[in-house]
Design goal:
Layout: E1 5-8, H1 14-25, E2 29-34, E3 52-56, H2 62-76, E4 81-84, H3 100-128, E5 132-137, H4 141-144, H5 150-169, E6 175-182, H6 188-192, H7 198-201, H8 212-223, E7 234-237
Parallel strand pairs: 1-2, 1-4, 2-3, 4-5, 5-6, 6-7
Helix pairs in contact: 1-8, 2-3, 3-5
Length: about 240
Amino acid sequence: MKDKIVLVTGSTQGIGLATAHRLYSLGASVVLNSPSDEDTFILEQFEDKNRVRFFAADISDEVALLNLKDFIVSEFGKLDCLVANAGVLPTPAGIDDISDENISRTIDVNLKGTFKSLKIFGRLIQETSQTGSIVNITSVDGIIGEPYGVIYSATKAGIISFTKSFARKFNEPLVRVNAVAPGLIDTPLSTSTGEDPSWTTDLSVIRRIGAPEEVAATIVFLLSQDASFITGQVLAVDGGFTLK
């Protein structure tokens, strides 16, 4: 990943931040993103400030995404990779108790926001990179369905569909598009649900909760040229949960 320019949306905690750290350690320049300026303190974690930038943007806001695109071009002149990680799970989110407001917010960020991110930054990668790649973050909930997060699951299933559609769309110039589907990972988002980890880990082959760094390693593999013959695929990082 040396000398690559990578945008990681939703990158100030959890999987996004772990991915940013791994990319940085491998020589990439990383553009961090979250909806709030309050998260700029994250930059203090990176020693070489020339290789790290932060831009506040809500991915559900297309104007904000276009401003982010202009920022990347002005700072680095190109974009090689995108990690479309930003997402929300407003609670309560079950079939019987989810509100219209939570339905709209989940769809706006996870589905519409991811679509806009892929369209805007995928085209920028096509225009400016010779070996571009994208990794979308979906979820095992998008594979198996989840009644306690029904709209969340639906949006994550939509991201799997986006992965396949954009992989076919971005074929010339080639930008590889893949997805990672984490299982239960030790992140602030998973903690916010209040779910007992044993509900998942007891059904997994590897009977423990996953670490953000384990997902980050898979993301970086798919971004890299080590995965140069892989596109349109979804890789579950779930401890074997979806096998049960």
